[in-house]
């Protein structure tokens, strides 16, 4: 019987895990090395070793209705894309509402998590912690949820660039970046076009003399703002889109979406165009980058080749002299120093995880690593679902396949992702937002049954099928059902509109008819596209069917009426 569960870390993942354990009647004990909750989202004026660190201006890249926990909608007046301090406030509300603080041991660092000598029988873990007075404590747990985050170890590939030892400017990682104050009037190079690289380059370009953004691959840049100014993820992450991208030829979808994007700013003209197709990887979410390029404040450059005394050389041979600083936005290494090294068994020391959660080599699946994945949507609802599944696995309600089978699945998923992500490590991390949530929801028994829903509650069905895949969908039925889920779905667009209601504008008198709704238009358009695409096959098929009907009628007439 699993009872006591150790939760390592009290960031957003740790909080969700504590809540889920309590819901399931388990006893969570959370250890948090700092003195507060929130992890990454708790801004600090200067970076602290071994901790994640964010910049002052960071605004989330996923919208509030999509990124909230499934039974705790964000306050209606919150902006759709909020500042990091507001997200931290939401986590405080969540912790308060569900009384989670009482389970957290602050200023207590987990030093090691190891299998007990009788692990093959008990599945239990020895956990060693250091408390605020420096005292070591030993605990025994039935299961462990690892929520320690993975943006703590900056990857700074300085030695890849010859000449850095003698470079006179400052070199630092985005982990150390807080704001652009020190960049005023300077000439700065930003390396890497991830979400941080884009944000930081834009911010620096507002005060620096010149900012260069160096990228090896380029990127598709997409705004947070979708059509009619609605949140991007709410219009993109829908079940109907998921089905359409499965049905329609991928090149066609890519072509159409890239065309729409290039219509706003031509990625080739702007020097942004990557070699991969739009849907193959996560696009860069940034509202301001193209504008800064248009204004000449931000200059795109190819990959950095190396340093000279006070300048840098790019791979196309161009040189920029008098560079004052180089900011490396080159990502992080995920490390879990307290876990047995035998668990990080990948060829590059990474974690091989079944469904991005369970190390397949354990005799008992009593340890799960939360949040170690990448996706085109928000992280929090997925981690929450991971926790719901993990506790079911701990208690034996949901069973994992054999080790062999798990390794097979891991390999086949990695192979599939390798088509888009050439790097095997990157490929292993990717999950498809709705498919992954649905898979886990099915294991937990909370996946919405669309057919039954269509018959019983067509209004809700329309919202769920055509509307955004908001997390409330996974609280409608089954274990952990929440009575407010249906209402939360029906009112989600009201909460989107609420923060805009700062100046009353009268409603138009006639409302647009449902036939003009963008969802129906998209759906109808797609059906027409399918028909057009397959018309060569469709027409003979229809002709065949007509002929068959014709012959059957003749047969029926001949046998029954004349025979
Ligand atoms: C710049 C940036 C922007 C992002 N923006 C978004 C976004 O807009 N939307 C989104 O969905 N995701 C975003 N993410 C992803 C983000 O990582 C997750 O959303 C989420 O914050 C992860 O939370 P976590 O609890 O897993 O980790 P963290 O928030 O890092 O929390 C880990 C906690 O564990 C504690 N800890 C670590 N080691 C130990 C130990 N040994 N013992 C005890 N305690 C320990 C730490 O002190 C910390 O409190 C962003 C990430 C970055 C880096
Ligand atoms: C948001 O930004 C973080 C940090 O760069 C990134 O890991 C995440 O994938 C981004 N989310 C989306 C939906 O692009």
Automatic annotation (TrEMBL):
It is an enzyme of class 1 (oxidoreductase). It catalyses: N,N-dimethylaniline + NADPH + O2 + H(+) = N,N-dimethylaniline N-oxide + NADP(+) + H2O; hypotaurine + NADH + O2 + H(+) = taurine + NAD(+) + H2O; hypotaurine + NADPH + O2 + H(+) = taurine + NADP(+) + H2O; trimethylamine + NADPH + O2 = trimethylamine N-oxide + NADP(+) + H2O. It is found in: Endoplasmic reticulum membrane. Its main location: endoplasmic reticulum. Keywords: Endoplasmic reticulum, FAD, Flavoprotein, Membrane, Monooxygenase, NADP, Oxidoreductase, Transmembrane, Transmembrane helix. Its cofactor is FAD. This is Flavin-containing monooxygenase. It comes from Lates calcarifer (Barramundi).
